[in-house]
Specification:
Blueprint: E1 6-7, E2 11-15, H1 21-27, H2 44-60, E3 64-70, E4 75-86, E5 91-99, H3 107-123, E6 128-134, H4 138-146, E7 150-160, E8 166-175, H5 179-190
Parallel strand pairs: 5-6
Antiparallel strand pairs: 1-2, 2-3, 3-4, 4-5, 6-8, 7-8
Helix pairs in contact: 1-2, 3-5
InterPro entries: Acyl_CoA_acyltransferase (IPR016181), GNAT_dom (IPR000182)
Protein name: GNAT family N-acetyltransferase
């Protein structure tokens, strides 16, 4: 996967680059973002490391991180990624998604998820796209369920959070056979509320 640009009237998703450090640093500077995340981007050194690691992982084919640009302001408002990329098995995960609080409960996340799902199923011809979140992140679970992903179960004691507590992971997916129904939900309900 190279040079993926995904956009509509609301958002532009483009590959993360070194030149994005300042914009990401501004967007990421709110402690509320990192409550349920495995990283925290509250200082410049953390942002620099995050960007460099994302670029290195893209070059290895491990992950593909996008910056999320709000079209009306032309500024970075977050990041999202394709993770656990396995093109031979025709699957990816959408994750490591974060947004600055000013765009929470806006059309940004819904539009990003639609563009990523559409690219995955229609361009990459994937069989499965999974999305997972922590058991305590109710806001994220509700957002994932709202787009039509199927809850598959909970992976118990799955991860250790940055502060050392145990996280159970709630696993969701959308499979190729469900895409047309999910796409219709997006186009009829979610993208045009």
């Amino acid at each position: 996967m190279k040079n993926i640009l995904l956009e509509n009237d609301i958002v532009l998703l483009r590959p993360i680059e070194i030149g994005d450090i300042e914009g990401i640093s501004k967007a990421a500077n709110d402690e509320r973002i990192w409550e349920h995340m495995s990283v925290s981007l509250l200082d410049l050194a953390s942002v620099e490391s995050y960007v460099k690691n994302a670029i290195a992982d893209r070059e290895k084919g491990i992950t593909y991180t996008f910056v999320v640009i709000e079209k009306k302001t032309n500024r970075i408002v977050g990041c999202t990624s394709f993770l656990d990329i396995s093109l031979p098995h025709k699957r990816v995960e959408i994750g490591s998604t974060w947004y600055q609080p000013s765009v929470w409960r806006s059309a940004i996340n819904t539009n990003c998820k639609f563009l990523l799902l559409q690219y995955g199923f229609e361009e990459l011809q994937l069989n499965r796209i999974q999305i997972k979140t922590g058991h305590e992140n109710i806001r994220s679970q509700q957002a994932i369920e709202r787009i039509g992903a199927v809850k598959e179960g909970i992976l118990r004691n799955h991860m250790i959070r940055k502060e050392g507590t145990i996280r159970h992971t709630v696993m969701y997916s959308i499979v190729a056979e469900e895409w047309e129904k999910v796409k219709a939900k997006f186009t009829q309900e979610l993208l045009n509320p």
